[in-house]
Amino acid sequence: MAVPLNRLEGRKFCVVFVKLVDPVTERVQLQCLRGRASIDRGKVSVYNEHGAVFTLPSVSLKNIMANDGTELLQDAEYFCFVRVDDSMQLVNKDSELFL
Asked: What are phi and psi of 58, to 5 degrees?
């Protein structure tokens, strides 16, 4: 069930970027952007403490979920997975996770 967007305003949010590293072994790389959600004209943006902003793709809005206690999400109240293109490089070494 989709989370009503108005419920997200100002809430702690974690965007989990997912990159497929090896399709054969299904190995993925995860990187998180943690911040606060902001809603503007039906769009959800996440602002972190350093001023970085990411607007969720509209296709991802239906996949927003409440934190299920997974350690990766830390204290976020809500999260969403966003698949990134294979050509993109995830560079923040502190929050990389390979599975």
From this structure: -60, -30
Beta bridge partners of 53: 47
Return the CA Rg of the chain.
13
Is 7 inside any structural domain?
Answer: yes
pTM above 0.90, yes or no: no
Is 70 part of a structural domain of the chain? Answer: no
CA pair distance 29, 44, nearest whole angstrom:
23
Task: Supply 45's token pair.
Answer: 């943006």
Does residue 48 contact residue 58 with C-beta atoms inside 8 Å?
no
Q: Within its chain, how far is the Cα of 24 from the centroid?
A: 24
Domain that holds residue 34: 1-41+79-85
pLDDT of 92 strictly over 50: yes
The count of structural domains within the chain is 1
CA distance 40 to 18: 25
Answer whether residue 65 is part of any domain.
Answer: no
Whether the predicted pLDDT of 55 surpasses 60:
yes
